[in-house]
Specification:
- There is one protein chain.
- With 377 residues, the protein is α/β, with parallel strands linked by helices.
- It has two domains: 111 residues, Aspartate Aminotransferase, domain 1 (Alpha-Beta Complex); 246 residues, Aspartate Aminotransferase, domain 2 (3-Layer(aba) Sandwich), CATH 3.40.640.10.
- The protein is built from twelve helices and 14 strands.
- A hairpin with a 7-residue loop joins β13 and β14.
- The structure holds pyridoxal-5'-phosphate (PLP).
- Pyridoxal-5'-phosphate binds next to α3.
């Protein structure tokens, strides 16, 4: 059986997975059986809690949720902000704005602090507003804003949010498992991520790691039956790993394998080191080829990096993309408004040697983009 992929995904997810993660999907599972609930789901929930905090894992619980990552974000927001609560959304990109859109759909009272895609959060404004506006009960922020790859300063934000006594929610979708973090140290109450990002599983479900004392207060708040976080948690606790509705069994089993492989690699610190080296080689190589970065270097994260499209009239992103795909690499379009750019992800089953090969392939593709354009002229 051929388990090779025709190309490497240098995207923010779904991303390239190991052959062994893909092979783990070959068995069918019964969702009522202990083999699945006790043998697969329960150890995953335990492992996630241990990844989330080494200081105080006993204070947290992990809940798995069907759907793509957004479903889990939506589950979090619509299940924990009460009817008389108010959510403050810190936004600096597409994913931050999606948090506000979710609140809007669910008619949750909220306000948005949007600093635009190229700037970090306004911490002074955050402190001022939280001191003045007692109606705000919850604050939510994206950890790594995948629009640009910018890492938001969780520690500074948390200090402000917690000294004001608010509940702190984090969308760590594209960072969790690839960037070290301790929910207890950062005083995070709820954190959400999904199977197909830094833990390097396949898509199909997300997960929420919740501070138990907070989650216990949320019974009856949910605005949706299937995404009711409290009910999903009780289902998994009381049913010892049982999901309330059909679970994506093959995906969950693949995730179990992915978690084992994260441990074998040396845990989050080792993965962070690999992603960082991938990104370092990427930026160095791209700059050598003449590409500029969208963000200044101090705002880069090891997850994904934005590059400016060359201004040359011969250059055509679509053509560049297709040539690079033939060479075995898939990259990602840009998302920053008003900046003509593209993105390259450095997470997944991707190693520094792959980045070295990528740089050679980019150099070759750029040569052909320019040749092709010259031939047309
Ligand atoms: C990937 C991602 C999501 C979820 O996206 P889905 O397409 O629903 O899986 C949410 N937030 C961030 C920051 C992400 O990177």
């Amino acid at each position: 059986m051929n388990t090779e992929n025709p190309y490497l995904l240098l995207t923010p997810g779904p991303l390239s997975t190991s052959p062994t993660v893909r092979q783990a999907m070959l068995q069918d599972w019964c969702t009522w059986d202990d083999d699945y609930n006790l043998g697969v789901v329960t150890p995953i929930r335990e492992a996630l809690v241990n990844l989330a905090s080494t200081l105080a894992p006993e204070k947290f619980t992990a809940v798995l949720m069907q759907g793509s990552g957004t479903f889990s974000v939506e589950s979090m927001i619509t299940s924990v902000v009460p009817k008389d609560g108010k959510l403050l959304v810190i936004a600096n990109g597409v994913y931050g704005n999606r948090l506000a859109e979710i609140a809007n759909y669910a008619e949750i009272d909220h306000e948005v602090h949007d600093t635009g895609e190229l700037a970090g959060p306004d911490l002074n404004r955050l402190s001022m507003v939280l001191a003045e506006e007692s109606a705000i009960t919850h604050v939510v922020v994206v950890h790594n804003e995948t629009t640009t790859g910018m890492m938001n300063p969780l520690e500074e934000i948390s200090n402000i949010v917690k000294s004001a006594g608010k509940v702190f929610l984090v969308d760590s979708m594209s960072a969790f498992g690839g960037v070290p973090l301790d929910m207890e140290e950062l005083q995070i109450d709820y954190l959400v991520s999904s199977a197909n990002k830094c833990i390097q599983g396949v898509p199909g479900f997300g997960f929420l790691i919740c501070r138990i004392t907070e989650l216990e207060k949320t019974q009856g708040i949910a605005r949706s039956l299937s995404m009711d976080l409290y009910a999903q948690w009780r289902g998994m606790e009381d049913g010892k790993g049982k999901w309330r509705f059909t679970s994506p069994t093959h995906t969950v089993r693949a995730f179990y394998q992915a978690i084992k492989e994260l441990d074998e690699e040396g845990g989050v610190a080792a993965r962070y080191a690999r992603y960082s080296e991938n990104q370092r080689r990427l930026v160095e190589g791209m700059e050598r080829l003449g590409f500029g970065c969208v963000l200044p270097k101090q705002s880069h994260s090891p997850i994904i990096t934005g590059f400016l499209n060359p201004e040359s009239a011969d250059y055509d992103f679509k053509k560049f993309y297709e040539l690079l795909k033939e060479e075995g690499f898939v990259i990602y379009p840009g998302k920053v408004t008003g900046v003509d750019s593209f993105r390259i992800g450095t997470i997944g089953h991707v190693y520094p040697e792959d980045i070295d090969r990528l740089i050679i392939a980019i150099e070759k593709s750029m040569y052909w983009v320019n040749q092709g354009a010259r031939a047309l002229a």
